[in-house]
């Protein structure tokens, strides 16, 4: 796996995390889109908002990692 493929894979993972986090937040605040990942994780019952926010923050971190171009 070369550098370009790794960057594309990280971007895809970041997009998936951002999408799932967004779906979780929309579901918690509006009741729509109840098919997200967060709603099906049992230990997050009652803490879905925090789990969704964590996914969004993780997505930002993954995007930052994908965009970093360190020499080394």
Folded structure, characterized:
- The chain has 72 residues and is mainly α.
- It has helices spanning 3-30, 48-67.
- 67% of the residues lie in helices and 0% in strands.
- Helix 1 packs antiparallel against helix 2 (48-67).
- The longest helix has 28 residues, at 3-30.
- The radius of gyration is 14 Å and the shape is elongated.
- The model has no long low-confidence stretch (mean pLDDT 89).
Keywords:
mainly alpha, 2 helices, single chain, 72 residues
Topology:
Blueprint: H1 3-30, H2 48-67
Helix pairs in contact: 1-2
What string gives the helices and strands in order? Answer: HH
Distance between the termini: 17 Å
Query: What level of helicity do the residues show?
Result: 55-70%
Count of alpha/pi helices = 2
Question: Can I get a quick summary?
Answer:
By secondary structure, this protein is mainly α.
